[in-house]
Design brief:
globular; mainly beta; 133 residues; single chain; six-stranded mixed barrel
Length: 133
């Protein structure tokens, strides 16, 4: 088995709403304007990245321009819009299509973010390991 090394070892971030630590990275979004930083949960189980409607509106996306679609997630079926946006993460700007959902969440998923970075999860040390491609 090939040995891996990671350039960054970042401590998990404390979620104030849940009182636990999670593998998160600070991200901003850029569409017509750049948003404030959000904590994005690195989610190896998420196919696509997702953000809240509030984050999309802060980036000045006109959500009415994009059709509503039904998606299946961990909480069952929900509504989302697939919107183009740039995500700024660890000094890199990544163009992607993100699912904009009604939930107050930012998820970093496999289809896009995991193609730009390799991730490792050290649960004992509560550390997120990151290596840019």
């Amino acid at each position: 088995m090939a040995e891996r090394s990671y350039r960054l070892a970042l401590p998990y971030t404390l979620s104030r709403s849940r009182g636990r630590r999670y593998p998160m990275l600070p991200v901003t979004f850029t569409y017509l304007r750049t948003t404030q930083p959000f904590n994005g949960l690195v989610d190896s189980g998420a196919e696509r990245s997702a953000c809240s409607e509030a984050a999309a509106r802060e980036a000045e996306i006109d959500l009415d321009q994009f059709p509503v679609r039904r998606i299946r997630g961990i909480v069952g079926q929900t509504r989302a819009r697939l919107c183009p946006i740039d995500m700024n993460i660890l000094g890199r700007r990544i163009s992607l299509e993100i699912l904009v959902v009604e939930a107050d969440i930012v998820l970093l998923g496999c289809h896009d973010i995991f193609r730009a970075f390799q991730f490792g999860f050290d649960e004992r040390a509560s550390t997120l390991l990151v290596e840019p491609y």
